Amino acid sequence: MKILRKYKFLYAICLTIVCIINSCTKDVGKISYAETAFPNEIGEIIIKKCATSGCHNDISKEAAAGLSLTSWNRMFEGSNGGAIVIPYRPDLSTLIYYINSYSEYGTIQLVPKMPFGGSALTNSEVKTIYDWVSNGAPNASGLVKFSDNPNRKKFYVSNQGCDIVTTFDANSMLAMRATNVGKNSIAIEAPHFVRVSPDNKYWYVSFLAAGALQKYRVSDNSFVAEANIGFGSWNTFAISTDGKHIYAIDWSSSGKIKKIQTDSMIVKATLGGLTWPHGSALNSTNDTLYVTSQISNYILKLPTDFSSYEQIVMDNSSIPSNSPILNPHEVMMSPDYSKYFVTCEKSNQIKVLSRSTDQVLATIPVGDVPQEMAISKSKNYLFVSCMEDVTTYGNSKRGSVYVIDIITYAVVGHVYTGHQPHGVMVDEQNKRVYVTNRNVISGGPAPHHASLCTGRNGYVTVIDLNTLKLIPSLKAEVSVDPYGYSIMH
Question: What gap in Å lies between CA 269 and CA 113, rounded to an integer?
């Protein structure tokens, strides 16, 4: 009996050991990444191979481009260059650029190859991450970043050299979506101007070479419709305050204006025979349109039925001239519509005119080649991008943003925001001013990464509205030639 009990005891011990061994074998490689919010198959790659000591973890991220990959949320905080993953766009996500070694996942393959100092990811591993980003890069619960609040504050940048409009989350200043625009998927059609409708439901984009004005939904960036406006270099457009009409401007030696009804996207009227029309703005009652004549000393003022127009001369000659004297580029109404501002890129001035009399109230010198404008209602500041300014900061820096008090007309400051600043957007909610820097000619910073299109990537920087200083930690690289711009109202 003692021997039998001994064997039973030994059998029980062996059985326990076998169970333990089987249990351990079964659990190998089955680590849960639930606490990181990554889907398990993604966490298996990123946590094990990227979020490691000395690389992209919370401790060492500052030496690794400011990027932590310790969790899904950390990944969507981005790096020093902005977002590394744009949901649904692996072709525009730098995470893919750095881990990819295989042509089927894109021709942009950046160095140093990640994981840094380790073995390159296998084809299967790259495909797993590529497909995940293609499907929106959701977290373990299936949530796609930025999809929880379609009405979040956003701003838009049209990349003129790549037929892409980038949507930014204004709160984090991360690129949250990217939309291919235009009619032709082969030739570049140059999206020049983008504007959000007054009700924040739609955004519209015009092109230098598409013969169309397109309409997209703000909620999901889906295409709605387009107006066929024919051949032209379609630069700016003005939207009526009720959102019912758009006035699109063809910038050419014999330019045109098209009046488009936005619900049907049908052209209702055309005015032609204008000399280099460019910037545009409407009065408060939407019955008068102001249009700059870019190679001249005047702007146009016309009723929105296009029955006539007059030329408002802005220099001392009182005679309209189509010579490069002032070269008015853009026009903007003051918040109370009592006056309007005009950038004059030849004379390097801002002209301030009374809306009631159309007389010049003030002439304000600014930096070289003033272009676009934005107004802060809370500060009574006018921000002016001087795209080719090599005077204010010297030849080593190209560009400046001037800040003008719209009550006293005094220049209260200027900021170097980057190479060739163009678009300017005021975000009163976050107390910021966003600036698109075109960076299309030599002398600017080398882009962090290559582009899908020919040319150099530009970038977006931010001015603190309270201090009028550049916020160095907020800089986002975008695609080629970020030209057009708009922010939700």
Answer: 56
State both tokens at 440.
Answer: 């299309």
* Contact assessment for residue 365 and residue 348, using Cβ atoms and an 8 Å cutoff: yes
Whether omega before 138 lies within 30 degrees of 0, making that bond cis, reads no
* Torsion, CA 385, CA 391, CA 397, CA 402, rounded to 10: -30
HSE-CB of 190 using CA atoms within 13 angstroms: 12
- pLDDT, tens only, 194-208: 999 999 999 999 999
What's phi and psi for 261, nearest 5 deg? -85, 120
Judge contact between 164 and 455, C-beta under 8 A: no
E strands, 170-239, in order: 174-180, 191-196, 202-207, 212-217, 223-228, 234-239
Asked if 200 contacts 216 with a C-beta cutoff of 8 angstroms, the reply is no
Residue 449 has pLDDT above 80, yes or no: no
Angle made by CA atoms 6, 8, 13, in degrees to the nearest 5: 95
The pLDDT tens digits for 339-364 are 999 999 999 999 999 999 999 999 99
pLDDT at 30: 53
Q: Which residues pair with 248 in a beta bridge?
A: 237, 258
Q: If you average pLDDT over every residue of the chain, what do you get?
A: 92
pLDDT at 39: 97
Structural domain spans, the chain: 1-30, 34-134, 367-489
Distances (CA, A) of 27 to 13, 21, 22, 104: 21, 10, 9, 34
In CATH, the number for domain 367-489 is: 2.130.10.10
pTM for the full predicted model: 0.91
Q: Give the burial string for 253-289 (b: 16+ CB within 10 Å, else e).
A: eebbbbbbebeebebeeebeebbbbbbbbbbeebeeb
388: which residues sit within 8 A by CB, 6+ positions away? 368, 369, 398, 399, 420
Mean pLDDT of the region 119-141? 97
Cβ–Cβ < 8 Å for 247, 259: yes
